[in-house]
Automatic annotation (TrEMBL):
Origin species: Parvularcula mediterranea
Lineage: Bacteria, Pseudomonadati, Pseudomonadota, Alphaproteobacteria, Parvularculales
Annotated protein name in UniProt: 3-hydroxybutyrate dehydrogenase
Keyword Oxidoreductase: yes
Domain of life assignment: Bacteria
InterPro entries: 3-OHbutyrate_DH, NAD(P)-bd_dom_sf, Sc_DH/Rdtase_CS, SDR, SDR_fam
Keywords per UniProt: Oxidoreductase
């Protein structure tokens, strides 16, 4: 269905695990060359890089740029352009989370969450957009979370960052639309990722609950389906937005949240 993706070049931040890694595999399956980015065990990262490249016959490279450092972000984009000739697809997925009451929140943690979850999107887009505009084609997808649309207690930094991502997405869409560049946001509900597992542990501590109680409450309070959102739910939308079929979609925060924002 998305054969036009074959030969495209993508940069995906935060793609060494979880949703980002699922995105990398989905695009590689469509024939897209990939630049991975993120932290983690070096051997595991290399194993995933080599596996994706071998399984799908595409070029997969890794860049460990720190998403809190603008100069490293700019280097990530320029090195990807040099290695693959261009960047057609930019997926901003890097993110971290830390829960806690705002009046007890650590300032350094706030700054780090804003830097990774919001500011890094600005820096990648600023660096990649000129090339996209010059070629008349670009697909920017920002992963914003359902928390880009609604709020939850104890997540002030994350909610603020993700609301900012939605606003940034709309602005870029308006600025770049006439140049063949689309910019959309994917807003997932709860997905069973390493980030969510850590978040549930922190939330359990903050609320004085067990992790199983937190898990049950998350799904019962938020998801109409009472099920987690799956990687497949998200990758199907990503491929559509990055394809020619997605050219008519821009500036929109797509909720893939099992009914969360329908409340």
């Amino acid at each position: 269905m998305f054969d036009d993706l074959k030969g495209r070049k993508a940069v995906i931040t935060g793609s060494t695990s979880g949703i980002g890694l699922a995105f990398a595999e989905a695009l590689a399956k469509m024939g897209v060359d990939i630049t991975l980015n993120g932290f983690g065990d070096k051997d595991e990262i290399e194993e995933n890089r080599a596996r994706i490249a071998g399984e799908y016959g595409v070029d997969v490279r890794y860049d460990g740029a720190d998403m809190t450092k603008p100069e490293e972000i700019r280097s990530l984009i320029s090195s990807a352009e040099a290695a693959h000739g261009r960047i057609d697809i930019l997926v901003n997925n890097a993110g971290i989370q830390k829960v806690g009451p705002i009046d007890e929140y650590d300032d350094a943690t706030w700054d780090r969450i804003i830097a990774i979850c919001l500011n890094s999107n600005y820096h990648t887009i600023k660096a990649a957009l000129p090339g996209m505009k010059s070629r008349g084609f670009g697909r920017i997808v920002n992963v914003a979370s359902a928390h880009g649309l609604v709020a939850s207690p104890f997540k002030s930094a994350y909610v603020a960052a993700k609301h900012g991502v939605v606003g940034l997405t709309k602005t870029v869409a308006l600025e770049a639309g006439e140049d063949g560049v689309t910019c959309n946001a994917i807003c997932p509900g709860f997905v069973k990722t390493p980030l969510l597992e850590a978040q549930m542990a922190d939330n359990a501590k903050a609320r004085g609950m067990t992790e199983e109680e937190v898990k049950a409450k998350l799904l019962s309070d938020a998801h109409a389906t009472k099920e987690f959102v799956t990687y497949e739910n998200l990758t199907a939308l990503l491929c559509y937005l990055c394809s020619n079929a997605g050219s008519g979609s821009t500036g929109y925060p797509y909720a893939v949240d099992a009914g969360w924002t329908a409340h």
